[in-house]
Design brief:
- With 447 residues, the chain is an alpha/beta fold.
- It has 3 domains: 196 residues, 3-Layer(bba) Sandwich (FAD/NAD(P)-binding domain), CATH 3.50.50.60; 109 residues, FAD/NAD(P)-binding domain, CATH 3.50.50.60; 99 residues, FAD/NAD-linked reductase, C-terminal dimerisation domain (Enolase-like, domain 1, 2-Layer Sandwich), CATH 3.30.390.30.
- Helices cover 30% and strands 26% of the residues.
- It is built from 13 helices and 24 strands.
- Strands 1, 2, 3, 4, 5, 6 and 19 form a 7-stranded mixed beta sheet that branches.
- The longest helix has 25 residues.
- The chain is globular.
- The chain starts with a strand and ends in a 10-residue tail after the last helix.
- 44% of the residues are buried.
Length: 447
């Protein structure tokens, strides 16, 4: 008999397992695939490994700006993918070690819940006082696909060669990130978005316009307000996609990047409360059935690894007898485009009587030194100057957003964060000036 049995070892599952063990519980994790789930194997980590190679390639091409002469760089796609695989393997091995070090038993196989407190893995019955469902998500497919010609993110991360051209359906975070990867490696890229604008999750057109301009400057064809009606494979290395506007786009491969869907299969007989294609949970990650919890993508948007991990911790703590509550108001969202976008909290349009501070990277010495002056920081505060949201578009945005997370979570006044001493010369000074600008106290802003 286990105290806690967790289904899935992704960002929610393995973290829940370790937290439960830290609290003195006997824990097992059941995994049907690779340890680490989507994030480590088909998502966050492999894409960032490839993006790092793209970044190095771009730096070499821009070396002349820094007074350095180099020859023409050559891209080795196989070596890039090999490096990606090595990084993934190292991290998945690290997660296995952490689970075993904390005394969490790993059980390989497909799990189904027979009844509360009882799981089946193959023909083996496993009993546990509490069960945490962390089965993650899979790529959403708006139509049936030929996985040789039409790819999901899974196939795109395991290509043996770089396609000469690719059409990407969906220009949200996933689509834009893959567009950045493929164009950076030398492919011809067309990016199609059904909605009027790329990055529909970013509710600030000024931020989106910065990224749109940069994507176009990199050679990406952006088609907004158009739906892919039909995809036809003409021959081995060529196909045509028909858009709702009547336009045809020819490409060697098509990548479907229309988001992800929670993996709900296997729980149909449980009568769990499911709404809008997700398991309904309360703020403690409890489902409608006592003793069964859920965490991660299975609970719905936002489908983010760090959100999943936080939910995993909450689920494990409550399954261990604590009374923990998940805070959804300060979850950062990062888009690894070029330049990056990072946001937390509310956008200006969502805050009545908002007071806004803004500062551009071009005014920061460090940004000039590294030739990364694109973008800006925006701080959204309420009428009392308490920080309600922070948005960053620019280099290293994902690394800079935590201070915004702290401000939103703790309802800190913008001037308090602006009065902190920030190291010079660093990119973080852009945040300082934006916080101060809420009360028009920015020292270095031209007016």
């Amino acid at each position: 008999m286990y105290d806690i049995c967790i289904i899935g070892s992704g960002s929610a599952g393995y973290v829940a397992g370790i937290r439960g063990a830290q609290l003195g519980k006997k824990v097992c994790v059941v995994e049907r695939g690779e340890i680490g789930g989507v994030c480590l194997n088909q998502g966050c980590i492999p894409t960032k490994a490839i993006l790092a190679s793209v970044g190095i390639l771009q730096n070499i091409k821009n070396a002349k700006k820094f007074g350095i002469k180099v020859g023409s760089p050559e891209m080795d796609f196989q070596e890039i993918m090999k490096r990606k695989d090595i990084i993934v393997k190292r991290l998945t091995s690290g997660v296995k070690f952490l689970l075993k070090q904390n005394g969490v038993e790993i059980i390989n196989g497909e799990a189904s819940i027979k009844e509360p407190g009882c799981l089946l893995v193959g023909d083996k019955e496993i009993r546990a006082k509490s069960i945490i469902i962390c089965t993650g998500s899979s790529p959403f497919l708006p139509f049936k696909i030929d996985r040789e010609y039409v790819l999901t993110s899974d196939e795109a991360l395991n290509l043996e060669r770089l396609p000469k051209s690719i059409l990407i359906i969906g220009a949200g975070a996933i689509g834009v990130e893959f567009a950045t990867i493929f164009v950076g490696l030398g492919a011809k890229v067309a990016l199609v978005e059904m909605l009027p604008s790329i990055l529909p999750e970013i509710k600030d057109e000024k931020i989106v316009s910065v990224v749109r301009k940069e994507l176009k400057s990199q050679g990406i064809e952006i088609i907004e307000g158009s739906k892919v009606e039909k995809v036809e494979k003409i021959e081995a290395n060529r196909g045509v996609s028909l858009l709702s506007t009547g336009k045809e786009v020819e490409a060697e491969r098509v990548l479907v990047a229309c988001g992800r869907s929670p993996n709900l299969e296997g729980f149909e007989d449980l009568r769990l409360k499911i709404k809008d294609n997700k398991i309904v949970v309360d703020s403690g990650m409890r489902t409608s059935i006592p003793g069964i919890y859920a965490a991660g993508d299975i609970t719905g948007a936002p489908l983010l690894a760090h959100k999943a991990s936080s939910e995993g911790v909450i689920a494990a703590e409550n399954a261990s007898g604590l009374n923990s509550i998940m805070d959804y108001n300060s979850i950062p969202n990062c888009i690894f485009s070029n330049p990056e976008i990072a946001c937390v909290g509310k956008f200006e349009s969502e805050v009545p009587d908002a007071r806004v501070g803004e500062y551009r990277f071009q005014g920061v010495g460090k940004a000039l030194c590294i030739e990364e002056t694109r973008g800006f920081v925006k701080v959204v505060a309420d009428k009392d100057c308490k920080v309600k949201g922070v948005q960053i578009v620019g280099t290293h945005a994902s690394d800079l957003i935590p201070i915004g997370v702290m401000g939103v979570k703790n309802k800190i006044k913008a001037e308090e964060l602006g009065e902190l001493i920030y190291p010079h010369p660093t990119l973080s000074e852009c945040l300082k000036e934006a916080f101060l600008d809420v009360t028009r106290s920015a020292i270095h802003k031209h007016r």
